Write the structure tokens for this entry.
Amino acid sequence: MLLSKSNIFKCKSFGTALLVWSYRSQLQIQREPSIDLLGAFVEHWKGITHYYIESTDENTPAKKTDIPWRLKQMLDILVYEERQQAAAGEAGPCLEYLLQHKILETLCTLGKAEYPPGMRQQVLQFFSRVLAQVQHPLLHYLSVHRPVQKLLQLGGTVPGSLTEKEEVQFTTVLCSKIQQDPDLLTYILEGKIVSRKKASREPSALPREAASVKDKEHPHSKAPDRASCGTRALTTQLPAETQEPDGGPGEGSLITSLIGLCKSKKSRVALKAQENLLLLVSVASPAAATCLVQSSPCCPAIVEHLCRLYRSVPTFLDPADIATLEGISWRLPSAPSDEASFPGKEALAAFLGWFDYCDHLVTEAHPVVADALAKAVAEKLFMEILQPQLLHVSEQSVLTSTALLTAILRQLRPAALLREAVAFLLGPDQQAAAPEDSPRTLCSHLIGHCDHLSDEISVATLRLFEELLQKPHEQIIRSLILCNLEGRPYVARGSPEPESYEDTLDLEEDPYFTDGFLDSGFQPSTKPPPAPATNSDGRTAVTEIVNSFLCLVPEEAKTSAFLEETGYDTYVHDAYGLFQECSSRVAPWGWPQSLTPLDPHEPERPFFEGHFLQMLFDRMSRILEQAGGPISPLLYTPEHVLALSLRESMTHSHHPYSLNLQVTSVLSRLALFPHPHIHEYLLDPYINLAPGCRSLFSVLVRVIGDLMQRIQRVPQFPGKLLLVRKQLMGQVPGEQLDHQTLLQGVVVLEEFCKELAAIAFVKFPPHGPHVHLSPPSEGHV
């Protein structure tokens, strides 16, 4: 005979009585298989309902009453009963009683009323344990599905709720059930909570159970109705507002609850909610994925939170500070503690962490969900927020938004999101541009920003394009470069091949190379061969290309030979790794291995290198005179294509040097692409250019010509040049010198020519590519 409630309260120690009661109940369940489980189950439920009828103390917390213990006993009985069932899959009398008398709905009402205090916590725990431990499928029953929906309405909406731990446990169980049976997702997301007036007209089970609802909701076993009167009396005593659900369909859904929990200040709660949401969007069922997109606030809610976090980031952030938080993970969204603090650091870390989470969602989600989420990010974040900021007249707005977009691109990985980002930045048009085209697209405006009056904006935008060029999407390089090089219109038609190196360069016809200049003593550091050698495919031999770039800068303008660790060897080894990485990235695109043959009868057509290359060539032609503004060294020490130690050691904050580095960095990225037209146009010094055309090598030749005229006016030029190189490498303290912009430009020019020679060498080595390349001594191949 179980202890009665009245006997318990007569005990001197209430806690001792509960322990005795629990012990005796367990003994009876274990030792008396013939025990009346249904009677015990009803007795416990009756004890809960009688508490509300008899109790007058409204301040006693629920955990100090016998309600938690009675709920635990009811759960144990349900689990024990299921284990004793002879036929698997059949509901026992106690489970049938739970369903028939809508006990879960009543508990949900009690949890909403929060009477006694803490009751919602007890109800959430009971729901979670029942759904997790009872193996019989329950969520298809209307008497389970409806209270689950009501309970979801109560949670996830108020940040900092005292029941967040229980709420996330509840949603974890639901997501686990959905993973086991993806069809459940449709029922849970599309479930509508109706008022009591409509309840009588509803079927008593969801569609999947409609055929057997009569058997399941009204079982054959005649369960005693000893708690029915108590339940009816209980519902009449509760406040009226707790008996009706609030909100329309779609409010308080599983998605809303999960996203609300993702915003929790408790890191463990937020992380578990994010894992649950990630599990939910990765369901394999196409019908469930379609339902998730069309019948839930999943994508809009996720992106709305992303946009809210973006708006919370201060507009005055320094791009250098943004760069320090690269690599933030959604699993560890807080900023690294070892980094210097700055205003807006936490807001920036929160945004980058949530974007990384969105990135993972798109990666792991069903393709239907991934495409919808990527489009939502593009529409709400890229188009509605970022684009107006990038086109704003405020320089600070342009600078910060460009740096943030660069950080976004660096974290972006899934193909669906990359496709939307590329369409946003470059637009759908891949036709070759004309010089007179006005900037109509965002890409045109961004290219214009690379030549902005503000050097900070120029460098930030160049970094954006450098990051974009490292993404595995063919439209990027095709829109920026290849569409203008198709058909090789930069090559002169019908003209004989040049007989010598000098014929190719046409120095006498170049306005930079006047008679006075040639008489000034300029001589190439090494005389090039009389005629370029070619391979069987028509390409200039790599030895000729390497020699041309290494010999381009005259000896009096070279300083690297006086210092260690700045030689050609370092460039070749680093270039090899980067070229292999680039080649792997573009391998699926099916690029040709050889140049497109020229039709000698095809008339020449005007050639325009495109706005992107035009900007880079114009910038390169001003490498000796770039006007420098206050540039932050932490941001603008670029992750250069060859990781040049000279570049990594920059410590000055007022140098055109930074701008020159970034221009050469982008050009080096372009030169790495293994497309024959790119290689020919950027790396072949012997190309026979059509009239009015220029190539990268011809631009460099003109810069050298300008340099040789300038150095005649700089006293003690070799000594000052060597001092500037040592300053840039951090070997000597920095001090302001006359002609410092010119001297720094010469250093960058020398290193850039060595980079290009190294890239050409690893792209087409004389004996095939190999890991341990041994380049020749500098200045000669």
In short: The chain has a mean pLDDT of 79. The CA atoms of residues 48 and 67 lie 6 Å apart. The chain is about 55% helix and 0% strand. The two ends are 101 Å apart (CA to CA).
